[in-house]
Amino acid sequence: MLENDLFIERFFLRHESTLCTRHATGLELLMDLADNDLLDLLLARRDPDGALATPEVLEVLGMLRARDPSPAQRVN
């Protein structure tokens, strides 16, 4: 799904140099979801629950959901 791909692309552009095994674990669990379920999480329509609500998933999901700072907040 294009929307999911855009979130994932932005994630890697921002964080590729700082990712660790913990992030890979969380990302792997999220990538196992159906496209629509993943999109619901990315858009904060719902939060992970059950076995998916691990610290790794919650951390990566927060990174994926993070928005770019507004132009006024950006530091050059």
SSE class: mainly alpha
First and last CA, distance: 33 Å
List the secondary-structure elements in sequence, H or E.
HHHH
Give unreliable regions as ranges.
none
What gyration radius follows from the Cα positions, in whole Å? 13 Å
Largest sheet: none
Number of β-strand runs: 0
Number of domains: 1
Structure description:
Helix 2 crosses helix 4. This protein is globular. It has helices spanning 2-15, 21-31, 35-42, 55-65. The chain has 76 residues and is mostly helical. Helices cover 58% and strands 0% of the residues. It contains four helices and no strands. It has one domain. The mean pLDDT is 92.
Set out the fold topology:
Blueprint: H1 2-15, H2 21-31, H3 35-42, H4 55-65
Question: Which structural traits does this protein have?
Answer:
mainly alpha; 58% helix
Brief characterization of the structure:
This protein has helices at residues 2-15, 21-31, 35-42, 55-65. The protein is mainly alpha-helical. The mean pLDDT is 92.
